[in-house]
Amino acid sequence: MVEQVMWAGRFVTAVRDGRWEYVRRSRGIRAVVILAETDAGEILLVEQPRVPIGGPCLELPAGLIGDEAGGADDSVEAAAVRELVEETGYRPGSVERLGDYYSSPGMLSESFTLVRATGLERVGEGGGVDGEEIVVHHVARGEVARFIDARRSAGIGIDAKLLLLGAASFDR
């Protein structure tokens, strides 16, 4: 079939391919998701308002690769460092690629590269840029499941990527 662009914005494009409709990132933009662990064994999670779900969402730190002017040469590793510093205030000493994954392949063509960030050094406050209102949570690895369950019980959206941590319970 021939792909037909139904609508295109700065960050997303709605496409029809035969009977199938889906959304993809515009301009070849990709994403990086960061599993960051401190030397003390804490996982860094971020909570921020998300317009599509109408409220805050608990997530792993993440960001776009190549979304800014001149970003064609942006690498996964450079984006991971930049986004981790912006969102959490920590700069990693090491970034290791863990593979590429698809967010919701029945509806989106978007993929993300998962990375592990270690050797973290506090270099700022974090919180994001441009009014992102990011709250950083330091959660002991052994407490991640309880923390996620508590935030979910409090009505906070939970990004499905947190299932990568093997942390969410399914009893509710």
Q: How is this structure best described in words?
A:
This protein has 172 residues and is mainly beta. It has a single domain, classed as Nucleoside Triphosphate Pyrophosphohydrolase (Alpha-Beta Complex), CATH 3.90.79. It is 13% helix and 42% strand. A 4-stranded mixed sheet has the order 7-4-10-9, with helices on one face. A 4-stranded mixed sheet has the order 12-5-6-13, with helices on one face. It is globular. The N and C termini lie far apart (42 Å).
Explain briefly what this protein structure is.
The protein is mainly β and 172 residues long.
Fold blueprint:
Layout: E1 3-8, E2 12-17, E3 20-25, E4 30-36, E5 42-50, E6 55-59, E7 62-65, H1 76-88, E8 90-91, E9 94-102, E10 111-118, E11 121-122, E12 135-140, H2 144-153, E13 157-158
What's the pLDDT, averaged over the residues?
91
The counted number of beta strands is 13
Structural domains: how many: 1
How far apart are the termini?
A: 42 Å
